[in-house]
Design goal:
mainly alpha; globular
Length: 326
């Protein structure tokens, strides 16, 4: 087990380097350091001196990937924007944003609002989706199953923007039950998070229910289920004791991978509801073309995704003792 974890950790290093390189190339293919300086200076007529000063203060005055003017081979690769901006991230030192604010401090401050929104959506959503999928699978080949699938397909066909805008209009503007947007710490955060959580659960109900229903129906048709029925076990016992347990392996594949992304927040939901989390922080950085923040958030997302895959493999051994990691 330990050797497996070490091996997967070593595999993660070239993956993170590749993702970082791809993000770097994509960003600077669209924008040059001069373009970034003009945007952040916010002036119609920016002097070349002001651009040069801005780039020098933020370390964008060096070559992007290869410094042909450097004396040695190490300096040719090391004295570049890519190396100096990337190497510190592997020790989680994200430096300062292009506007001067400390990225690490911003991440720590915005992580809690993102978790306060994403964690209830994840937990409540997982319980609701599994319960609804079990209900539909229990009444398979009946009108409940048919109309349940129709409802899921209809919900999948509706954009998440409809749920957000419709929920804000109906629950906040007409009924005045919760604030339409904003965020406040402490106990008062519940009234700001209630509507985003409900919308998050409902918005993913259709896709998750259809997926989990497929898992349950696949297990129901296996031999061990027929054997359990032949022993006289009730359908409820078979469904909850045997089918649910064996269907948890594919369910864990999606659930455990999603856990690290709880820290990243939801881009659309946080932006529409004015929640100062990591999702809105990323959207604001993309709008302002703040490469330092975008690069940091992509790196964190890649790292958390790799951690999620590792946790998924480890969770398999808990659900199915037959699986061994070597």
């Amino acid at each position: 087990m330990i050797a497996y974890i070490v091996r997967r950790t070593l595999y993660a290093i070239p993956i993170l380097i590749g993702v970082n390189l791809f993000t770097f190339a994509l960003f600077f293919w669209v924008n040059t350091p001069d373009d970034m300086a003009r945007m952040h200076l916010g002036l119609k007529r920016v002097t070349p001196e002001a651009i040069a000063k801005w780039k020098q203060e933020r370390g964008y005055d060096k070559p992007l990937l290869f410094n042909s003017g450097a004396p040695g081979a190490t300096e040719k690769l090391g004295d570049t924007i890519f190396f100096e901006k990337s190497i510190r991230m592997f020790v989680f030192d994200f430096g300062a944003a292009d506007d001067g604010r400390d990225i690490g401090r911003e991440i720590k401050a915005r992580m809690l609002p993102s978790l306060a929104l994403a964690l209830p959506v994840f937990v409540v959503g997982l319980l609701v989706h599994i319960t609804f999928a079990l209900l539909v699978a229990f009444f398979r080949a009946t009108y409940i199953d048919f109309w349940g699938v129709v409802l899921c397909v209809a919900m999948m066909s509706i954009s998440s923007m409809f749920y957000i805008i419709g929920g804000q209009y109906l629950i906040s503007k007409l009924w005045h039950l919760v604030p339409i947007s904003g965020f406040q710490g402490g106990v008062d955060s519940a009234k700001f998070l209630a509507l985003p959580v409900i919308i998050g659960v409902i918005g993913s109900l259709g896709a998750a229910t259809r997926l989990y229903r497929t898992f349950f129906l696949e297990e129901i048709n296996k031999d061990y289920v027929r054997t359990a029925r032949a022993k006289g076990l009730s359908e409820v016992t078979v469904l909850f004791k045997h089918v649910l347990k064996n269907a948890m392996i594919p369910i864990l594949t999606g659930a455990v991978v999603a856990i690290p992304f709880l820290f990243m927040g939801s881009l659309i939901t946080e932006s529409f509801f004015g929640i100062p989390g990591l999702g809105s922080y990323t959207v604001d950085a993309i709008r302002s073309q703040d490469f330092a923040v975008v690069r940091s958030m992509v790196f964190i997302g890649s790292f958390l995704y790799i951690v999620g895959l590792l946790l998924t493999d480890l969770s398999y051994t808990l659900v199915d003792p037959r699986i061994r990691l070597g």
